[in-house]
Write a structure and sequence with these properties.
By secondary structure, the protein is mostly helical. 71% of the residues lie in helices and 0% in strands. The protein has helices at residues 3-12, 22-38, 44-49, 57-71, 74-91, 106-127, 133-149, 155-171. Helix 1 (3-12) runs antiparallel to helix 5 (74-91), helix 2 (22-38) runs antiparallel to helix 4 and helix 4 (57-71) runs parallel beside helix 8.
């Protein structure tokens, strides 16, 4: 996993901390998807940052955020965006402890969970009542398991949608 890509994951999750409405979330995600699909490769700074490793994750990340805002309440979509943006970068650190260097082992799961908890706690503190923290943790545990089982960069899609589904479902 390229650590440079993980920096972008984190940076691109920052808009979720502004309490976005569904319309604004859809707009940002659509613009991100269009930018990544049509312009990302043409900007030499970004190409160098990614070391020419353009992969499907570049499109799956904004697509997952777009689907989250289209299918779920804005608060679930924002929080899932934070989970992905804060959790996934820490997985890349797991390659230092794991023999297969994929980040898909136990240490990767633990680091994903810790990063997502940190980001989620900040988001929840700003936007939601305290009572939802338990729902957040249960949703995050399910999401962390799915993230570990998802091959390649498809976790960019499954993390956001799994978290939204469980978090929204448990609130009902």
């Amino acid at each position: 996993m390229a650590f440079q890509r993980q920096i972008l994951h984190f940076l691109f999750s920052i808009p979720a901390f502004f309490g976005l409405t569904t319309g604004i979330g859809l707009t940002i995600a659509t613009l991100g998807l269009m930018f990544n699909a049509f312009f990302f490769r043409r900007i030499s700074f970004l190409r160098r940052l990614m070391k020419n490793e353009i992969d499907p994750g570049i499109l799956l990340y904004p697509l997952s955020v777009l689907l989250a805002f289209a299918l779920f309440p804005a608060d679930s979509a924002c929080l899932s965006w934070v989970v992905m943006g804060w959790g996934d970068p820490l997985v890349s650190l797991a390659v230092f402890w794991e023999k297969d260097r994929t980040g898909k082992g136990l240490m990767g799961g633990i680091l994903f969970f810790l990063g997502a908890v940190l980001g989620g706690m900040v988001w929840l503190y700003i936007f939601m009542p305290v009572g939802r923290f338990t729902i957040f943790l249960v949703s995050l545990l399910v999401t962390a398991v799915v993230e570990r089982l998802t091959p390649g960069n498809w976790d960019n899609l499954t993390v956001v949608l799994t978290f939204c589904t469980v978090f929204t479902g448990l609130q009902s």
